[in-house]
């Protein structure tokens, strides 16, 4: 019986030992992706994550600009900042300017991208032209718009005076100052966002437009039924980046009235501008770090809300059958 088993047993194949080149290829396949992305994460840890953690540590101390670290106060700085009326005033100004800039900015950027997506002559020239405001330095933009929105000798008030209208107090009143600063933001960033949306529109297959045109859909119908659903991920990206930038606005309100940090009555002082005042004028780094962390949490909250809304809209659209699909289903049943 033993001899029979030995005769019928199959010989075991011995795998050859992999060479050094083969082991190196396996290591390259497994480890090279991590090595390629490692520089970004290392740089982010140095200039992003470490300052974020260190700012939180500073917010737990009574930290002075010149004297340095003081006593440990825990969450006392957070409690005092949340009870500070100037902080809530700056947050109101920030959200107001953000809404006045983000909503028109997205609408105008969509319109410009749709126009640039047409068969225009000298398309490259027009596409590069909308990017020129983004290239101009913020200081030059602030100087131009400060002269335009001047209360006594501004261009806009002079035009209003020619029509017998009273001048607008662009720097002294809350809403006019917010409109002026939002106009500066829109002028600088609308073309940039329009090019991002245009790149997404260029990726939409042209066969969809041709099929819709054959079905009798007009240009407006094709835009709302094909273009907007196709570029929704890009629109979500633009909304999120505009939200982050809008809540961190500093340059425009700071240069709009360089003599004050947000107006004589803080009528257009944003949260970042109030942070700058707390850190370098009041020299209180502990509360300034606290404001920075509260602003970080607010931005994260806005980002999560944008994500949930966009996800809900996308889910609702995916569950809703398209008009063409309904037509095909009706033809099949007939």
UniProtKB/TrEMBL annotation:
Signal peptide: none annotated. GO terms for biological process: transmembrane transport. It is found in: Cell membrane. Its main location: membrane. The keyword Transport applies. Residues 91-306 form the ABC transmembrane type-1 domain. It is a multi-pass membrane protein. It comes from the Bacteria. This is Binding--dependent transport system inner membrane component family protein. Keywords: Cell membrane, Membrane, Transmembrane, Transmembrane helix, Transport. GO terms for cellular component: plasma membrane. It comes from Pseudarthrobacter siccitolerans. It holds the Pfam family BPD_transp_1. Belongs to the binding-protein-dependent transport system permease family. PROSITE patterns: ABC_TM1 (PS50928). The lineage of its organism: Bacteria, Bacillati, Actinomycetota, Actinomycetes, Micrococcales. The chain crosses the membrane at residues 34-57, 91-113, 125-145, 179-200, 231-250, 290-309. InterPro entries: ABC_transporter_permease (IPR051393), MetI-like (IPR000515), MetI-like_sf (IPR035906). The gene is bglA.
């Amino acid at each position: 019986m033993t001899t029979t088993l030995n005769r019928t047993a199959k010989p075991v194949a011995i795998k050859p030992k992999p060479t050094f080149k083969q082991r190196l290829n396996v290591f390259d396949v497994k480890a090279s992706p991590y090595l390629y992305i490692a520089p970004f994460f290392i740089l982010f840890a140095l200039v992003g994550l470490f300052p974020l953690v260190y700012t939180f540590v500073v917010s737990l101390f009574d930290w002075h600009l010149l004297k340095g670290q003081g006593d440990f106060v825990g969450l006392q700085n957070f409690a005092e900042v949340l009870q500070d009326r100037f902080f809530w005033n700056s947050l109101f100004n920030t959200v107001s300017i953000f809404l006045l800039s983000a909503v028109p900015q997205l609408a105008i950027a969509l319109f410009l991208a749709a126009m640039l997506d047409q068969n225009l002559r000298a398309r490259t020239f027009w596409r590069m032209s909308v990017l020129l405001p983004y290239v101009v330095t913020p200081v030059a933009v602030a100087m131009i718009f400060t002269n335009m929105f001047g209360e006594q000798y501004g261009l806009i008030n002079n035009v209003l005076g020619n029509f017998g209208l009273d001048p607008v107090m662009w720097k002294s009143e809350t809403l006019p100052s917010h409109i002026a600063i939002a106009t500066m933001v829109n002028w600088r960033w609308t073309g940039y966002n329009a090019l991002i949306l245009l790149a997404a529109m260029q990726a939409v297959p042209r066969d969809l437009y041709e099929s819709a045109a054959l079905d009798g859909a007009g240009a407006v119908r094709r835009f709302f039924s094909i273009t907007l659903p196709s570029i929704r991920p890009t629109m979500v990206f633009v909304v999120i980046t505009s939200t982050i930038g809008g809540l961190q606005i500093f340059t425009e309100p700071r240069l709009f009235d360089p003599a004050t940090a947000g107006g004589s009555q803080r009528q257009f002082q944003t949260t970042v501008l109030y942070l700058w005042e707390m850190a370098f004028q009041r020299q209180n780094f502990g509360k300034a770090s606290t404001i920075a962390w509260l602003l970080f949490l607010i931005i994260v909250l806005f980002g999560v809300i944008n994500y949930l809304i966009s996800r809900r809209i996308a889910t609702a659209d995916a569950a809703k059958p398209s008009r063409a699909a309904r037509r095909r289903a009706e033809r099949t049943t007939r």
